Amino acid sequence: MDTRITRITSARVPELLELIRELAKFERLEHEVQARTASLRRSFFSRQPAAGALLADCDGKLAGYAIYFFTFSSFVGRAGIWLEDIYVRPKFRQQGTGLALIQAVAQIGVERNCGRFEWTALNWNKKALAFYDRLGARVMDEWLLLRLDAAGLRRVAALDAASNGALKRPPAGSHKTRRPKRPPS
Question: Which residues are known catalytic residues?
Answer without folding.
Answer: 132
